[in-house]
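> example.struct
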């Protein structure tokens, strides 16, 4: 016999799985430090590539001035400024990524805790129905 409450519960869980497949369920496979470390490493490379691209565009935009003034530019000082600005950019960006990743991980953990509770509730519904002697429609484990 179909239990309407159990069907609603299964539908709610299936909707959660479909909706959160790429977010909470993916994030939940990692420990907190592993997830944040992975995000920091990934974004370190992406931020470095982005910084280099922005620097290349700036150089191309000012190429005429650079060619004219190449003899008078202190290249060691300019290289030091570029490295320092890159490190500052990466530091600020890494802090932002750390904060965002931590918030995402905590949100995913809350959702997964709710999901686990709902699965337990569904399991309890099956057990209650089996104790009352009704057919549950669920296959029993063979021992």
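> example.seq
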């Amino acid at each position: 016999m179909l239990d309407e409450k159990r069907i609603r519960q299964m539908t709610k869980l299936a909707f959660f799985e479909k909706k959160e497949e790429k977010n909470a369920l993916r994030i939940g496979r990692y420990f907190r430090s592993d997830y944040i470390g992975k995000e920091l490493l990934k974004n370190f490379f992406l931020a470095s590539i982005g910084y280099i691209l922005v620097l290349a565009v700036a150089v191309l935009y000012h190429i005429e001035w650079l060619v004219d003034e190449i003899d008078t530019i202190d290249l060691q000082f300019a290289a030091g400024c570029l490295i320092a600005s890159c490190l500052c950019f990466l530091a600020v960006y890494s802090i932002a990524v750390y904060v965002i990743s931590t918030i995402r991980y905590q949100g995913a953990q809350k959702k997964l805790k709710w999901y686990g509770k709902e699965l337990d509730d569904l399991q309890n519904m099956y057990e209650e129905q089996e104790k009352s002697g009704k057919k549950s429609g669920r296959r029993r484990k063979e021992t």
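> remarks
The mean pLDDT is 87.
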